[in-house]
Design a protein that fits this description.
Elements: H1 3-9, H2 15-18, E1 45-52, E2 55-63, E3 69-73, H3 78-97, H4 102-108, E4 128-130, H5 133-141
Length: 152
């Protein structure tokens, strides 16, 4: 290839277009706004087990004092836990959009029919408290008795 052809085909912009000393261009559609609840919390949380076909997929949790709620997948749930997490994130965004508090969102799906991906929260599931989110994360990472079966 001739030297002049190489310059025409180059995909690396010249230095003038790479100069960021005057700031960045608009990065739209990216935004720092998040449509759902926060997913980190400092205080105590309430949580419910999420199961599918009596297999524990993870835990839906909500803060008692902050605008935070999320899903913690059980490590042993593998790809099923991953897919469930995506569905619960969507559900929590929907709940936030409807103006529900995190605790209202936590309790909203109790007793509803199981979703094929997200699983469900049994009507008789016992709401529990953890002093911190890390406590629930450790529970989700631990080896559970019964091969991941729900202990409702």
């Amino acid at each position: 290839m001739a030297p002049q052809d190489e310059d025409e085909c180059s995909t690396v912009p010249d230095e003038a277009t790479m100069d960021r000393s005057q700031g960045w261009e608009d990065l739209a559609p990216f935004t720092l706004e998040r449509p759902g609840y926060a997913f980190l919390v400092d205080g105590a949380i309430r949580y419910l087990p999420v199961t599918r076909a009596r297999i524990l997929l993870g835990y839906l949790w909500a803060s008692e004092s902050e605008d935070a709620a999320f899903f913690v997948k059980r490590t042993g749930a593998g790809v099923d836990g991953f897919y469930a997490e995506g569905r619960w994130i969507s559900r929590l965004r929907q709940a936030k959009g409807e103006g529900l508090t995190p605790l209202q969102a936590l309790r909203r799906w109790r007793g509803e029919p199981e979703d094929p991906e997200a699983g469900g929260i049994a009507a008789d599931a016992v709401e529990q408290e953890a002093p911190a989110l890390r406590t629930l994360e450790l529970l989700a990472d631990s080896h559970d008795e019964g091969g991941g079966r729900s202990s409702r």
